[in-house]
Amino acid sequence: MLNNFRYHLYTDFIFGDDAEKHVGEELTKLNVKKVMIIYGGQSVKKIGLYDDVISQLNKEGISYVELGGVQANPRLSLIRKGVELAKKEKVELIIAMGGGSVIDTSKAVGMGYYYDGDVWDLSANPGKRKGMLPVAVILTYPAAGSESSKGCVVTNDDSVPYVKASISGSPFERPILAFENPKLTFSLNERLTACGVADMYVHIWERYFSPISFGSMDYLCEALMKALIEFGPKVLAEPDNYEYRGEIMWIGTMAHNDTCGNGRPQDWSTHGLGHELSALYDTTHGASLTIMGPAWMKYVYKDNLARFARYARNVYDIKESDDEKAALAGIEATKDFFHKLGLPTSLEEAKLPTDQLAHMAAQAARIKGGKMGIMKSLKEEDNLAIYNIAIKG
C-alpha cells in the first residue's frame, strides 16, 4: 500500500544556456549582502565561471569570502574550516560552484553554521540540526543530484581509516536556488561524466527497488533509467552536445530529489556498501556503485523475483517469460551498461584490495544501526557475502 507523504521541493531552478548569468540579480532579489563561495579546484576558474560570478557580485554590491579546495568525497576537516569562516564573517548565503562534493560541503557548512557543537555530531544525531544557511548552486558536474536533495554525505578524515556518513536534512534544507547550464559541463572528462551517469542511475534504482509498487512512480523510474541507457553513451561520444548534456543534467536532478521516490520505502544498500570503498580507497562514488550494485542484485534478487523480472523486462526489454531467467538477464544487462560507460563491475576490475572486506561489512552495518536495506534486510554477515560476490562481480 502506498505510504502517506509530504513533498516540498523548495528549490527554484534556473535551467538553460547562460543560467549562471542570473546569479547576481537573483541574490539581490533575496536582499543578500554577503556570501561565501565554495568550490573545488581550478576548473571553475578555467571555464570563466568564477570570474563571471565575482563580476556579478561586485556589480550588485554583494561582498564575499571564499573556501576552495573541496575534494571528491568531501572532507570534514575542510567543512569545519568553512563553518568557522562562515560564523566569523556572518555570511547570509553560500554559493556552491561545482558538483555533489562541493554542494554537500556547502550544505554541511550551512548546517554547522547554526549548530554550536561539531558538525560531525549531526551525522549520528540529525535531530540536533537547527537549520541551514541558504545554499545557491551553480552546477558544473551533474551526478549526485545534491542541487535539490535533502542532506549531504561527509567523509571524516580525522578517523583512521576514514568514515563516510550522511547527514539527513529536512525539506527546508534543500538548496534555495539551482542554476543549471549544460554548457558548464562540456569540459568534464569521460571518466567523470560516466561516473555521474552511474550515480544518477543508482539513485533511481534505490527508489525503484521497493516492496511497494506505485504505478506512475514505477513507470517514471523505468523511463529515467532507459533515458540514461540511451543518453549516457551518447554524451560520452559527443561531450559537447548541448542536448545530450542537458538530458543528463536534468535526469540527475530528478533522480535524487524524490520526484521518483515519494510514497514508499527506499533501499539504499548499494550506496551504503559503496561508501565503504570511497572511505577506504577514495574510490570515485559512481564507480563504487557500479562495483557494488550488481553484487547486491545477485544477493537479493531471489527474495524479490517479480520486481527484478519487471526491471529486466521494462528497462532492458528482455523477452523472457521465466522470472528468474529474466531477473538474471537484467543483472547482466546492467553490468553491460556499466561497462559501456567504461566503469568496473567488480573489485578485480577496479584493481581494489580485498583484504578489508570484513572491516567494510562491519562498518557499513554500524553506520546504518546494525542493518540496512528494504528489499532484503542486510546485517554484517550479509554485507560480507555481497563484498565477496563483488570480488569477481
In brief:
This protein is α/β, with parallel strands linked by helices and 393 residues long. The protein has helices at 23-29, 43-46, 49-60, 76-89, 100-113, 121-124, 190-208, 215-237, 242-256, 269-281, 285-300, 305-316, 323-340, 347-350, 357-367, 380-392, and strands at residues 12-15, 34-39, 63-67, 93-98, 135-139, 152-156, 163-167, 177-180. Helix 12 (305-316) crosses helix 13.
Globular, elongated, flat, extended or rod-shaped: what is the shape?
A: globular
- Secondary structure category: alpha/beta
Helix run count:
16
The chain-level mean pLDDT equals 95
User: What does the main sheet amount to?
Assistant: 6 strands, parallel
Task: Quickly count the domains.
Answer: 2
- Structure summary, number of beta strands: 8
Based on the coordinates given, report the CATH architecture of the largest domain: Up-down Bundle
CATH top level of the largest domain is Mainly Alpha
**Cα distance, first to last residue?**
34 Å
Strand order in the sheet with the most strands: 1-8-5-4-2-3
Task: Please state roughly what percent of the residues sit in beta strands, choosing from under 5%, 5-15%, 15-25%, 25-35%, 35-45% or over 45%.
Answer: 5-15%
Given as residue ranges, the uncertain stretches (5+ residues, pLDDT < 50) are none
